[in-house]
Amino acid sequence: MLLPSVSIGIEPPELSIMDLDTGIRRSSKSPATDVASANLGDKEFADLEFNAVLIAEDGLEFNAVLIAEDGADQTVEDGSVAASSNDRTTSKSVGFSSELSEVEDQIQHRHWDFFLSHKQSNAQDTVQNLMMILTARLPGVSFWLDVEQDPTEKGMRHGVQNSKDVLIYLTTGLIESKYCQMEMRWALEFEKNIILVIETDERHGKPSIEKLIELCPPDLKHIFSDNVIIPWYRDPEFRGISVEKIIRARSVKKAGPAVVAESTTKLKFMTRSKSGDSQGGDVFDWTFVYFTVLCGVALPGAGRKTKAWSWAVRIILLTCGCMCMSRVFTTDGPAFWDRSTIMQIFIAHPIIFLFLHVTLTILKSPLIADLLENRIDAPVEAKLLRLKTRIGTCLAALLTVSLSFWGWSAYLPAFFDMYYMESVSQHRSPTLLLFGLAHGFTWILILPLFFGSLFASLLMMFVLQELSFMALLTSFNELSPEFTRSGITATVAANAGLNINELDLYHFQVSFLEKWKIYKTLQWRASIPFLVFWFLEFGLMSWSLWSLSQGFEADPSDLRVDRLRENWFLRVRLSWFLGSSLWFGAGAWIVALTPFGVSYYAWRMEMQAKQILFTHPGLRHSFLAFLAGFDLNFRVLFLHATVRLLPLYACILIVNTLGFDADAVRIWRAV
């Protein structure tokens, strides 16, 4: 048991009472260092100033310097030191100042492994317990703790500067502390590896992450998005998980700035360098990184320029949506087709903005950082994910380019038509020239962003679904370490049965439950744009049913018929709208069926579980019964994206598609 006056891992090698006694006896033989004996009993402790200075010369000679205010004969435990004359004590004091200056210089050049930043009022005891647990786990590790070091502003800054890692223990009230804010800023200034540990017990100051970020100064907010937040469990069964995460999050000494060591997985989207440039991760293909960044999706670890561009894309989407709305009031010229088409395009802009915004919000959340850093260890699945993202990126890029060129050929000839370009010379309204130029150049910019942002968001949601499923598969590693190296299918094929016990199954259940909660949380956060989309699809059914009731016969009385006859590009526009519409075209089907892709993962999990056999016959039943209680399908409010309900939702899409197609057929037949 460590004495309260002895720092854990901060002071030089621990000096025990017997070592101290031996050192005193050794020093008493030297005339230069002969000192009065001291009694360090509990009664006299308050009356004495005790400084034990351990000075190593070539690793051989150790001198213990004792300063006694009383000058009386004193003893350590029951061992006595021969008292010298008062002249000896005086000669000892003469050389003390030089030794003290040497010790202070030595302390100023100390280095620590961890700097512990915390709120004293509610985390002092917890941090000291954490310190002792880490010391037992990592013998020789050192800590800077304010109660055991220089608590002045200068001392704290020195501690941060000379520590490898800055561990910030998050509790209520921490972010309001000016000293904790200073420690965070120093950690950023000295480019230290930051480890965030959060209290999980409300009785000991469990904070709200959202509240912490809200109260955090603007220059410190990115700490929560750039670093993993590790929960600190008080249950001994789960505390080991927290300790392992802290150990994995430690920095290692390398050339240049500190880097995170022992990461569970290499599934990082991007890493940030000093220059602010972005570099791709090891698993995600560069095509995926470039495409998503160009379309306004700032991946975790992106630089400032990329983040600024993502904000610009969102602003452009909303601005161009408002410009599309202005076309409703400009019916002059060949660019006008009908108001219903303009309204559909106008509503599509905020929907795509919502998809992009929700995706970026999820990516910035600490949940994703924790998922990438600590929850995934599935190398086999990671290799497949690289291939899947490459294929998905190629398809998304192909759709974006094709639909953009198709849309340009349908709209640009209309906006740059001489009707608008010569409006001033033909004595028309001068605003028509501005209308044509503004919408023409805007359409060139917005179409790739319009489709690219949509497909990039959907692609990103697919990747998040893959990652959360990989986290679930990582839980199976608790049953067999071979699952990590070879995968479940290959391991099961090579082994007749797994030899595990009930404790192994319990560890699997704890891990699976924790990651299933993350899985469902991501589903809920990603569901908002899909719920809005399907709500609008339900609303469009009334118009679609009315359109179908009108049949497919030609309607010469429709005003759009004459416009189609006069302008060839309106025919291209009609075909483009039917093919790419977000409400009944290819865009609608892609968006609508995306949630149903989650059923594939539910099926995969069921198949994986059935393959696993155990040597203990009773465990397999418990294993399958446990997994049966967790639904992996996409179920949020009224949207139940399951295989059984797929025909019902498909019928809604078919009705809307046929309703709009019937309207187009009536016009075409009239032309």
From TrEMBL:
Keyword Transmembrane helix found: yes
UniProt-listed GO biological process terms: signal transduction
Protein name: TIR domain-containing protein
UniProtKB keywords: Membrane, Transmembrane, Transmembrane helix
UniProt-listed Gene3D superfamilies: Toll/interleukin-1 receptor homology (TIR) domain
Domain annotation TIR: ranges: 114-201
Annotated transmembrane regions: 283-299, 311-330, 342-363, 391-411, 431-464, 526-546, 582-603, 647-668
Domain of life where this protein originates: Eukaryota
InterPro entries: TIR_dom, Toll_tir_struct_dom_sf
